[in-house]
């Protein structure tokens, strides 16, 4: 398992905020994409694909189930093959 | 069929709106049309990577400026036009009278957004891997993206259809809406057509235009109508849809097919040419448009008025017939002579479609 850097976290947060159309101070590590930020399945796919595109990682669709908030995304990305 | 079927419900046009080169909304459209205002403007080449020239654009139309920044990050122009126009249409209607589950949406188009389709394809070809594409583009790169987004945005849960028919799309969308209503698939149908101006469309038009016919200025926009079934004895809406006829011209004899199409739509309604108060041809360049023009002039000579639209707002492709429908409705609202009489909208498309719609003003 590779740890992720502060820079990675910042980049992930920026990607997520861009897709969910949020300012960075509107989101926390534990706020929920769907329940609190009105994300739908399309937005979640966009997050997954955009992370793959920008971080050059491969993520399994099965891991989307854990990507419910920023903390979950950090976890999934840190476990990915980079 | 000989004559109108009296048992059928009347199909009322209970509302309309337009986002056009005249501006946003129904009153901007009515005012521009009344003034006969030309809308061609010089193109901003920072925004559009096209050869120097002019086009008829919806003034100051930027999706995120018009619809806000929520849900619009990747929204393309044609979707923004459709979502915005339906918003204007619904704002004029009693929303509480609409049941989401029985409110349908029919959107006419040429082929969706060629710009979005090409952007996605280009991304796939130029990215590191073919699947490294911007996922947010995908819903908009298929042609039913706009109709789907309209339904999501405005919470319409009835039948949702996209109809690709080029210049005839507005008339054929009305016809499709009519069938949904007559078969009980929907209680109200919001229908119309939209076309966006884009760099890709401008280049396509430039390379496919018939040089002999002259190169028309491109236009863009969207017009939407609310069509609802009403019992034949219910109080009348300002206008109702009497009939739609569509034919194919496969042998190049546009004059004969256009004439036959108009004759049949009138005959099916038991109407005579002198019952026609207004006629609006597509104004398309080429033999199809010329054939429509000849029929329009005959009907005008028989006592109708001609309502030209394309000379003011440009070649709207999918939006053109929808603009023509909006134009006759708009003109009828301020002309008492329309009462009880008919409006005819004709349209032709290079792919071979010839279509006509007949409306009655009340």
TrEMBL record, chain A:
Pfam families: PP-binding. Gene3D superfamilies: ACP-like (1.10.1200.10). Residues 6-81 form the Carrier domain. This is Acyl carrier protein. It comes from Streptomyces exfoliatus.
